[in-house]
Amino acid sequence: MARPKKQGLDYFPLDVNVDNKIEILESKYGILGFGFIIKLFQKIYANGYYLEWNKYSPILLKKEIGIEEDKISEFIDFCLEISIFDKTLYSTYRILTSKGIQKRYFTVCKRRKDVEIINNYLLVKPGDYGVNVNNNPPNNNNNESSQPEENKSKNDENAKTPLERS
Questions:
Q1: Which residues is 117 bridged to in the sheet?
Q2: Which of 4, 14, 58, 85 is 20 to 30 Å apart from 37, CA to CA?
Q3: Does residue 156 surpass a pLDDT of 80?
Q4: pTM of whole model > 0.90?
Q5: CB–CB of 115/106 below 8 Å?
């Protein structure tokens, strides 16, 4: 049996001098805002270069970090307002990502043999960060008929919300 391809990271670089967006978040919400964004970055990088965000995400995150759902939603809205996350990709695909997240992700992944890429989610060119795009067939995430039959049921299951899976 083949080893599954790893998409997430075991670590991510955190700059000593954070950018102004993180400083604004911390200025408004204090250390709670800073801790929240770092925890969210951990979730994003554990899965790749984006995080799907739906109506159940705040509930699941509340369980993990102990912040109330309405506060989590407030944090997310503020992060979108100050462009920590890309507003267009969030409104179109309901994902949390940014150019900075993607730059760091692809820089760390440059030595991997292949990395799953969804073209519609990209804000940067992976090849600019050392990822060998010739080994990484793009996934446009909008053409299910091109998926191998054995992957369709798995992807269909992953597309469901947590409540629909049970």
A1: 138
A2: 4
A3: no
A4: no
A5: yes
